[in-house]
Amino acid sequence: MRLVTSLAVAVVALGAVAAQPAAADSAYEAFGARGRAQDAKRTVDIVMRDNSYQPQRIQVRAGETVRFRVRNAGELLHEFNIGTAAMHRQHQREMQAMFDSGMMSATSKDAMAGMDHSRMAGMNHGAATMGHDDPNAVLVNPGQTGEMVFKFTRAAELEFACNIPGHYESGMVGNVVFTR
Ligand SMILES: [Cu+2]
After folding, report:
1. Rounded to a whole number, what is the distance in angstroms from the first to the last CA of the chain?
2. How far is the CA of 106 from the centre of ligand 1 (A)?
3. Which of 28, 38, 40, 58 reaches 20 to 30 Å from 121, CA-CA?
4. Which residues of 159-169 are buried (b: 16+ CB within 10 A; e: fewer)?
5. C-alpha angle with apex 49: 67 to 163, nearest 5 degrees?
């Protein structure tokens, strides 16, 4: 009975989050788009640790499609997300809600994978809306490697960052530098 109650609370919490930020979730369109693998002429390797990135700075060109190979060498769940500082702030609030609801844990992006999904139709919808799968972000479980192909259409002031609660503040942020 306790479980049912906490799930109901989680569904309500997620509904509230999913309802507002549709605009923020497509904010990346101001500077980029999902890339096609065949257009990527180079691969950038990123290593994530608890809580830092290697390298801390990447260089790209406007118009370039880059494949990012993102390895999580830490023991915690991490994200590689490209956006403006304002987008990261917004995303941090969404992530906090997903943690509060139990959908994600410190070590797994799918903490509820083993549970009864029939009861959580609304939550699955919420997850899709909030995008584990955004073109500008990849979430990687500890010990795993994720991939993302992104096209930088326009130069902008961008950071790559991890928006898991507490990680950005503890230094999980780097700069995207546009070169000519
Ligand atoms: Cu992180």
Report:
1. 60
2. 9
3. 28
4. bbbbbbbbbbe
5. 75
Distance 18 CA to ligand 1 centre (A): 22
Predicted TM-score of the model (pTM): 0.79
Count Cβ atoms within 10 A of the Cβ of residue 16 and give its class: 0-12 exposed, 13-18 middle, 19 or more buried: exposed
Distance 78 CA to ligand 1 centre (A): 4
- Centre of ligand 1 from the C-alpha of residue 51, in Å: 6
For residue 60, the CA-to-ligand 1 centroid distance in Å is: 22
Query: Which residues neighbour 54 within 8 Å (Cβ) at sequence distance 6 or greater?
Result: 46, 47
The sign of the dihedral angle between the CA atoms of 143, 144, 145, 147 is: negative
The string of pLDDT tens digits covering residues 60-112 is 999 999 999 999 999 999 999 999 999 999 999 999 999 999 999 999 988 87
- Residue 106 sits at φ, ψ, to 5 deg, of -60, -20
Q: Which residues pair with 138 in a beta bridge?
A: 80
Q: Considering the chain, what percentage of its residues have pLDDT values greater than 70?
A: 76
